[in-house]
Amino acid sequence: MSRTEEDKKGWDEYRLSLLVEKSKSDDHFEKYITIIASGALGLTITFIDKISPLENAICIWIISIGWFLMTTTLFINLLSHYIASKNNSKAVQDIDDEKDYDEIVSGINKRNKKMDRLNIASIYTLAIGLCCILIYTSINAYNGKKKQNSAESETVYKTESCSKQTKSKRENDTITNVKFK
Questions:
Q1: What are the CA-CA distances from residue 117 to residues 26, 71, 121, 124, 142 (Å)?
Q2: What is the DSSP letter of 98?
Q3: Which of the four pLDDT bands, split at 50, 70 and 90, describes residue 66?
Q4: How many C-beta atoms lie closer than 10 Å to residue 43's C-beta?
Q5: pLDDT at 68 over 90
Q6: pLDDT tens, residue by residue, 124-163
Q7: CA 8 to CA 17: how far, in whole Å?
Q8: How far is it, in rounded angstroms, from Cα 84 to Cα 96?
Q9: pLDDT range class, residue 10, cuts 50, 70, 90
Q10: How confident is the model at residue 74 (pLDDT cuts 50, 70, 90)?
Q11: 101-172 vs 60-96: helix axis angle to the nearest 10?
Q12: d(CA 74, CA 78)
């Protein structure tokens, strides 16, 4: 069954609206990746500065991996912006060169596969980096609490021990010999 001109026009309008929505979705995707990765970097720096300084921290290699992956995510995102711009320029050039429609679409699809790989890589680096950061903060929050409880217990023990020793000496000293001249 062949389509009427009205059907074709309707499908073209629908297709165009889908492409506009895809473009918005891609923009949001890259924006949120950047916000999450840079926010995670900032929060971990604050965590290390205020809650668990590096000199008291354990498993520092985990946060190093997390930071590397967050930075890699930001780099991949920046690279994908650059490549998307180049891809758009190439598609416009293909149209200006009056290439065949199928050849233009084939080129666009081929270039979009590269962009999809970059986007998937940024999702993986973000996810693994966030896991590393969460593991590091959990370990060091627990370790910091454990050290704090240990230090408090030691202080209480020393205080109680000293007061018992002082108290026992006073209780045992029932007669004090004081010499008068």
A1: 14, 18, 6, 11, 37
A2: T
A3: very high
A4: 12
A5: yes
A6: 999 999 999 999 999 988 876 666 666 666 665 565 655 5
A7: 14
A8: 18
A9: confident
A10: very high
A11: 160
A12: 6
Cα gap 154→152, rounded to integer Å: 5
Look up tokens 């593991």; give the residue: 135
Distance CA 114, CA 122 (A): 13
Say if residues 84 and 115 touch (Cβ distance below 8 Å).
yes
At 12, list the tokens: 């073209």
Mean predicted confidence (pLDDT) in 82-110: 90
Structure tokens at 165: 């020793």
**21 has pLDDT over 80:** yes
The helix (run of H) or strand (run of E) holding residue 126 is: helix 101-172
Q: Look up residue 102 and give its two tokens.
A: 């199928």
- Are residues 62 and 135 in contact, defined by beta-carbon separation less than 8 angstroms? yes
Burial of 29 (0-12, 13-18, 19+ CB in 10 A): middle
Joined together, the tokens standing for residue 1 give 């069954």
Predicted TM-score of the model (pTM) = 0.71
